[in-house]
Every structure is written in structure tokens, then in C-alpha cells.
Amino acid sequence: MQNFAEELRAALLLILSGDPDMWSIVLLSLRVSLTATVVAAAIGLPLGAILAVTRFPGKQLVVVVVNALMGLPPVVVGLTVYLLLSNSGPLGVLSLLYTPTAMIVAQVLLVLPIITALTRQIISELDGEYADQLRSLGLSRMQTVPTLLWDGRFQLMTALLAGFGRAVAEVGAVLIVGGNINHVTRVMTTTIALETSKGNLALALALGVILIMIALMVNAAVAATALRAQRLSHA
Amino acid sequence: MRDHTDQLRANWAKDAAPAVPACRVDVSDLTVARDRKTLLNIPALTLNAPGPSVIIGPNGAGKSVLLRLIHGLLPATTGQIALTDPSGGGAVKQAMLFQKPVLLRRSVSGNLGFVLRQQGVPWRARRARIDELLAQGHLQTRAKQPARSLSGGEQQRLALVRALATGPDLLLLDEPTAPLDPAATREIEGLIRQISASGIKIVMVTHDLGQARRLASEVILLHRGQVQEQAPTDRFFALPRSAAAQAFLSGDLLR
Ligand SMILES: Nc1ncnc2c1ncn2[C@@H]1O[C@H](COP(=O)(O)OP(=O)(O)OP(=O)(O)O)[C@@H](O)[C@H]1O
Ligand SMILES: [Mg+2]
User: What domains, with CATH codes, occur in chain B?
Assistant: First the structure.
């Protein structure tokens, strides 16, 4: 216990001292996961909304599959992207393996089903309320998509935050496709795994504390979003 | 649309319905069935009174179904509904105020701007048109407020002027004053009179018989999916001919 307290003290000192190595790891983590979330949102928001408002044969199956993909194990995503990007893989010529770009690609795949599925759910519900009114105002089904996305903006924000939370906290995918290379592809989660196994608990703990603070901030943002929506009677 | 607003101003005080409404509705051989239940059965019905045609009847009579059908939101099982412009002015545009209108999660002007943009009104003209509509709904001081934070009466006025923003020839109103207090009801009724006087054909549903008397040119009683009586307002209330109308007016009509 004595040991843990000491390590924690060292960890806090590390955070407060502004250790440049540590902060570059934090920044890379945020850069990778934020980029992945933005890319996944650019695809997943319209995709989820279109899935919500259109009818086609086999739609139920697609919905079930997308929902199931929300729980995709990160290591499986990592392995798949690895196979695609490795020298002998179909995208090997791009030489992306062990770069931050590869990590972003892996996290996009991980986050995309989450954002798509949650968007479909949120927009479906909103559509139930809006469909007749929007049709009455002269909108075609496809034209309702941007309207529904905008009017669902507060709820959709929570979907994006859920996606970001998942990305920044996962370790399996970025470890496999990033390789945990110092100063290149080392992010918070992979560093924690490595440093813990090496016995460097102070750095691991420091990053752990920062990760938890990020999780807290994401949750606070979700709560603030809900509150703002309510205040505007937009909930 | 410009015509309507200009005419609206011209008729501001006059408050009279024009001789010929902008639209007539012809229903023929209509049936609507759902789950083996017949919701509507109307062999023939024409709505072309100059002022509002007001549909009354007990809960579940099929009033909302009829309006949604006219509006094209429900398919008929058999028969058809024809909307024609007696002056021969091309396709009839229609708008509807729902029993529970859905306001968008935007400001009051945002709700109006949305419809105008949808109508293809250019950005510059939109601003002025929004101001006109706000004034018409007595909502000038509410322009920036989130639409869903308005009071019930204000929300209803916004929904009404938003329907007007589409520039309709035919306006369908489903119980426009149901949740409102007497003063708010009077305001909406005033608006409806202006709209009707501007030449827009109004077909509305109400449970308020006083309102039917005040606004209607003709009254249609619907009961169990069938038209029991259609008559000019005075005649309907003074000398109801059908047994259903007599029972309804004395509060004895069974659902
Ligand atoms: N989509 C539908 N499927 C099956 N039944 C329906 C459908 N829509 C309406 N109905 C039924 O049709 C009947 C008439 O409904 P409608 O909403 O037109 O009544 P209403 O005359 O408007 O009554 P109220 O005065 O209560 O508004 C009701 O029994 C209702 O349950
Ligand atoms: Mg009704």
C-alpha cells in the first residue's frame, strides 16, 4: 500500500511537472481518437439517418448487423486492419502499418458502427414524430435527412461522445496496427500496458489518471449537452 | 402567395369570404379500411362553400382520417379525392395544421425560415416574409425564442402561420383551438377568418359547436365514418334534418 501511495505521488508529480514525453503521448492519443471520431461521424451520421428513414428489403438484417458491430472486439479490428495494411496485404503498397494513420483507420472501423447504430436509433425515433409534419411541409423522405440530423443534434452529440470515449480507451486495435513505437505511435493505453509490464508504474498511473479525467470530461459534456437541450426545450 | 397576402390585407376589415374559394374538394366512392375495420365510407362529398367547411362529429368518427386522406398522408382503400382550382389555375397546393402540430427544435423564425427555404424563397426575400408571418401570428416579440418553449396558444399560432408559409390554396385544420383558452381561441379564429377571406379554402375539424357557428359556411357531420348531414351553417343548427344531427346537437349521439 505504501508502494501504491508513492507511485501515485510520483504520477501526480509527473502530471504537474508537464513532462514533455508524457504529454506528447497524450496529444497523440487525442489526435488519433478525435480524428477517428470526426471521420466516423462524417460517414456514420448520414449513414445512420438514411438507414432510419429508408425502407428496403433486408433492412432489419442490416440494422441487426450494425447493432452487433457496436460490440466489435478491438483486437479483431486491429487484426483485420493489420492484414489489410501489412506488406503482403491488399493495401500494403500504402506503407501505412505502424503509423498514426493506421491507428486512425482502425479506430474509425471501431467507432463507425457505434455512431451509425446510435444515429439510426435516435433519428428513427425523431422521424416517428416528424415524418407526417415534414411530408406535409413538402419534404421528400431523403430531404428529411438533414432536417432530422439538425433537430436531433443534441442527442446525436452524445452518440459522438460515446464513439470518442470508446476510441480513446481502446488498446487492442492501436497496439496491433500502431506497434507502440516510442515517439511515433505510442498512445496512452498502449503506454500504460507497456510501462506496467516494465514496472514503471508512475508513468502508467499518470496516464491512467489523465484517461479517467478525459472520461469524466466526456461524461460532463454529455450531461451539459442534455441540460442545454432541455433549457432550449429541444430535448 | 403574394396574391394571398395582398388580398389578406385588402380584406383585413371586411372579413367576408370571397364568392369563389381557391379550391374545391370532390370525394367520390371513398372507403378506407384498416385491420378489416371500415374507417370511412363516403359515396360522394363536395366541399366548395366559399368560407370554411367545418367537419364535426364524435371522437373516433373519422374526422382526422378524412383530413389526412385529403392531405395525401393516407391511402384510400377505394375511390378518389380530387382537388381542383375553379379558376383553372393549375395544381392545387395544400397545407395542414395537425391535431398535434410538430414544431421544429429551432427558434420561432427558424421554423418559418425552414418552410420558406423549402419553398425556394431566396434568402433576401425570406427575412421580410418571416416578419410578415410573425406579425400575422402576433409573434413579433417571440422571433428568437425556441419554438417549443412557447405557450400552447403561441405554438398553435406559429403552426398556423407556418402552414400559411407554404402558400396553400387549401388549408386543412384539425382542431386548431382544442387545447386553448377562450382568448387564444378568439385569436386563432380571427386568423382563420382572415385566411379564409384571402381566398384560401379552409376545411376544418372542431368539437366546438360555437366555433362552427362562428366560422363555418357549411357544416358536415361525420359519424362512424359516414357523412350524416351536410348543410349551410344556419340551416344545420336551426333545422337539422338527419336523426344523427338532431341527436348530436342535443348531446345524445352515441359513439
Ligand atoms: N392508421 C390507422 N390504423 C387503424 N385505425 C386507425 C388508423 N388511424 C385511425 N384509426 C381509427 O379510425 C377511427 C377514426 O379516427 P380519427 O382519428 O379520424 O377520429 P376523429 O374523428 O379525428 O376523433 P377525435 O375527435 O377524437 O380526434 C378511430 O377509431 C381510430 O382508432
Ligand atoms: Mg381527430
Answer: 2-104+168-249 (3.40.50.300)
